[in-house]
Amino acid sequence: MKKIAAVATAAVLGWGMATLGYAKLPAPSEEQKAKAAEAKAKADDSAKKDSELLGKYQDRAAEHYKRAKVVKTGSGVAGAKP
What we know:
Structural class: mainly alpha
Mean pLDDT: 83
Shape: flat
Strand content: under 5%
Number of domains: 1
Low-confidence stretches: none
Largest sheet: none
Number of helices: 2
Order of helices and strands: HH
Distance between the termini: 79 Å
């Protein structure tokens, strides 16, 4: 009996959630569209700057690794055998 009640409850909750999924919001106004476009432009600019900085710091880390590898092995080429 408890299984039937649990299944029925789950079915009712599932149906209720499905109907909520069909609800629609009103279309954004022109002001809201302009704000969204401005925010997107700022986010794109910020992402571009972040990716440039990431590349810069990755290059620095790679150079540091290469210098440390040369000092440790004593050879000019990383991984070369004497």
